[in-house]
Design a protein that fits this description.
With 292 residues, the protein is of the alpha+beta class. The protein folds into two domains: 140 residues, Roll (Diaminopimelate Epimerase, Chain A, domain 1); 137 residues, Roll (Diaminopimelate Epimerase, Chain A, domain 1), CATH 3.10.310. It has a 19-stranded mixed beta sheet that branches. A hairpin with a 2-residue loop joins strand 5 and strand 6. The chain binds the ligand N[C@@H](CCC[C@H](N)C(=O)O)C(=O)O. The site of the ligand N[C@@H](CCC[C@H](N)C(=O)O)C(=O)O has 18 residues, from helix 3 and helix 5. The ligand N[C@@H](CCC[C@H](N)C(=O)O)C(=O)O binds next to helix 3 and helix 5.
Amino acid sequence: MTDTLLITKGHGTGNDFVLFADPDGEVVLSEAQRAAIADRHFGVGGDGVIRAVRSASIPEGAAILADEPEAEWFMDYANADGGIAEMCGNGIRVFVHYLIERGFLDLAPGHSVPIGTRAGVRDVHRLADGFAVDLGRWRLTGEEPLVRARDLPVARPGLGIDLGNPHVVVAVAGDDELAGIDLSVVPQLDPVQEAGANVEFVVPADPLVRDGIGRIRMRVHERGSGETLSCGTGAAAAALAVRHWAGAGSPNEWRVEVPGGTLGVRMFAAEDGEHVALSGPAALVFDGELTV
Ligand SMILES: N[C@@H](CCC[C@H](N)C(=O)O)C(=O)O
């Protein structure tokens, strides 16, 4: 059976997505179909494909509703290879912008909405000029794999961080080394991470902290999508890792420069432990029609 999808292309700091609405859960695409949509030569092109579905209309969402009945909408996220991922920090800002623009959601600046994801419910707050998402609790995985990447002169130790999806953050020697890494080839982790990982390469700005705000630069190789211009959960992982390495007294507010722009990261105390929040823009750039 063929379906005609009304699709929208959007991005957050250059991390781009193809979005479509399927409120009642009637359009279940295969992994191959999602990959074909994300293909930059034969499809629309994007780092991910996002289906906007009511939580009640997808099993993973229905499971959430028992505890969080307010989470009406679920972000069904897939990477460019068509594989499902738990969470996307840039994607969820674009997702909420999309729901507002399509009339599915009424959210004035200064207000928040809970969104279902495979990593759990995430609160998204509308700002005057973008969105902020509470990425929830984070944790060090305890893994410190050695990371090898093409044109990275030596293997460097990474720090495993779980933000609902898996990250490994690697500090590199400076801007030249950062720019020189060839991320068209998947970085190798030793030991291999069974679920795969998004790998962030970071350098501190000079000075690391200005006006109480930590500053880093980052490039990322995303699991299932390759090098992207930005990764929101990756930016949060990178700031958490650098704060961890910098030790006591380092700030809880960070600016993360990625090839596609700048993201804000903030760590804060919540009732169930420390949370990390991500802020940044969310743009919708064109609409189209697609037959799948
Ligand atoms: N770009 C996203 C992360 C998307 C999922 C990731 N590739 C994974 O497989 O975990 C972000 O902005 O967080």
